[in-house]
Amino acid sequence: ARFVKELVRSGLARARTGTSTTTTTTRIAERFFFDLNSATTQQKKNKENLVPRFKFGAMMSSASSSSSCTREEVVEYELRRYGAEGVGIGVITLSAPDRMNAFDAKMANQFKTLVHRLEREVLGSTPKSKAPRALVLRGRGPAFCAGGDLGLLGEIARSDDLEGNARRLTELYASFLSIRRLKIPVVAAIHGYCVGGGAGIAVGCADVRVASRDTKLRFNFFRELGITPGMGTTAVLPALVGPAEAAKLLFQVPRRDASAEDLHRLGLACEVTADRDSAFEAACAIAGGLGAANPVATSSYLGSLRVPRYEDLAGVLEREGEKQAKCFASAHTRAVFKAIGERAGRRQGGGPAPKL
Question: 109 or 353, which is more confident?
Fold first, then answer.
């Protein structure tokens, strides 16, 4: 009841005539807190550890009987308590499952805004109880991330504005890689398709990765789209696996998806699990352990671990954006995206689904 009164006072909820406090409290709790039916066993045993869920944009809409939000939420965030010490673990979820979490400008902007908020929390400008000590990054639905949205990429391919396209691509990638500014560890739970820029997010945004056995990772820039790599992969991937292995992955030699076992062999995944649920649980366990460590030591080490440094990554992204913009303007790549658009049109008309 006190929670309801506080929401009404702050303007985040409005009272309805004839609605009991109990009913209103239940509705708000269902919206702002974890659903115990979907909580983990550990959370059910420690109900006091359940904390408010932040779904990006949800706090901007009133907590009335309708649960509609002011805008589509494609990036979700929640703070969980892990272990006996109740270490705060932030969970970021890419949430556009209908398009396999393919990213567009909206997702990039929401991701960047969330990172800015978390940066303030980690730096201590908000109560420490709200600050995560580690993050888990995952995708909702059957895939981690299928890369850039084809509608967005097709629009860039049709444009003759080289400078504008270069800036657009650079800002798009920088929005996701801004997470590297946070001085807390990031663990990615990857599953299903992890393609192109989506593979770049898995590699560039996380310090540690757990892969579900169904993971299919593919850098499809050169062979399939006819563009140079982006999302910082030209610098981040060689730093992680070495130039030779990076070249094989980026050139798709051999031309097949990298499996979870391949990622484990290369050191890109620390663990392979049976399915996406177990990958997420394993990632949370790792994040919980890392979050319980001395934050001073963790922050100091991350500054050395993340190569290239965030300050140096800006130049990498700018060069990648310029090179990609030139490729998008080439006859070859325009033909690729014209064919993709035609296949998409046939699919809408009942024809076969487009293939990348």
Answer: 109
**pLDDT score, position 271:** 98
Q: Name the amino acid, one letter, at 104.
A: D
Neighbours of 290 (CB within 10 A): 21
d(Cα 175, Cα 173) in Å, to the nearest integer? 5
Picking from 187, 175, 52, the residue whose alpha carbon sits closest to that of residue 116 is 175
- Contacting residues for 63 by C-beta, under 8 A, at least 6 apart: 7, 12, 13, 27, 28, 31, 32
Q: Residue 148 contacts by C-beta under 8 Å, 6 or more apart in sequence?
A: 102, 103, 104, 172, 196, 197
Write down the mean pLDDT value for the chain.
83
DSSP state string for 19-80: --HHHHHHHHHHHHS--GGGS-HHHHHTGGG---EEETTGGGS--SS----SS---EEEEEE
Task: Select from 139, 138, 153 the least CA-distant residue to 231.
Answer: 153
Q: Are 143 and 192 in contact (CB under 8 A)?
A: yes
Strands (E) located in 95-204: 134-139, 186-190, 193-195
pLDDT band at residue 60 under the 50/70/90 scheme: very low
Task: Output the pTM of the full model.
Answer: 0.79
Map residue 97 onto helix, strand or coil. helix
pLDDT for the residue 125 = 57
Is residue 59 pLDDT above 80, yes or no?
Answer: no
356 compared with 244, residue with greater pLDDT: 244
Do residues 205 and 137 touch, judged by C-beta distance below 8 A? yes
Sign of CA dihedral 46, 51, 54, 60: positive
pLDDT tens column, 8-34: 443 444 444 444 444 444 343 333 333
Q: What's the CA gap between 198 and 101, in Å, rounded?
A: 9
For 215-243, b where at least 16 C-beta lie within 10 A, e where not — what string?
bbbbbbbeebbbbbbbbbbbbbbbebbee
